[in-house]
Design a protein that fits this description.
Blueprint: H1 7-10, H2 17-28, E1 37-41, E2 46-52, E3 61-66, E4 69-74, E5 96-101, E6 106-114, E7 117-124, E8 133-134, E9 147-148, H3 149-153
Antiparallel strand pairs: 1-2, 2-7, 3-4, 4-5, 6-7, 8-9
Length: 154
């Protein structure tokens, strides 16, 4: 197995320690294909995760956010229908837990479940301290003020 060396990238960056850990976790885990899902970019700041959960109901699903990780779990209730005798059972209504690591700027807006599809709406919200700004260079006359990039365009 090949390992990924990020040292050339990390030489010119500060505070990206989590990026290295993210690559380590990707390499360490075997990816499970159940349940199938899509990640869509709807606009510059809007995203959607859609999971196909045929046979599940909302009371069998749990969505939580813990330390920047979105966790979607499903556990089917016991089927007490003793009269059912399946000849073929192709709908895999088995327990699952899927994790999505979210960037610091991504917020979960909400979730809905319709026609066997779970949709989770996400939005990128960039805080003021992370937005671009112009930093003036001090001169012999004294320090200059820091302005937002938006102010300098006006």
């Amino acid at each position: 197995m090949r390992t990924l060396d990020l040292s050339p990238l990390l030489r010119s960056s500060v505070g990206f320690d989590q990026l290295n850990r993210l690559f380590d976790t990707v390499n360490a885990k075997e990816e499970v294909a159940y349940p199938p899902y899509n990640i869509e970019k709807l606009s510059e700041n809007d995203y959607r995760i859609t999971m196909a959960l045929a046979g599940f109901s909302t009371d069998e699903l749990d969505i939580s956010l813990n330390d920047g990780v979105l966790i979607i779990a499903g556990k089917a209730k016991e089927d007490n229908d003793t009269e059912s005798h399946f000849i073929h059972r192709g709908i895999a209504k088995r327990a699952f837990e899927r994790h999505f690591k979210l960037a610091e700027t991504i917020r979960v807006q909400g979730a809905n479940f319709e026609n066997g599809l779970l949709n989770i709406e996400l939005k990128r919200e960039i805080p003021e301290h992370m937005k671009p700004r112009q930093i003036e260079i001090d001169t012999a006359a004294g320090p200059q003020k820091i302005t937002d990039a938006n102010e300098s365009a006006a």
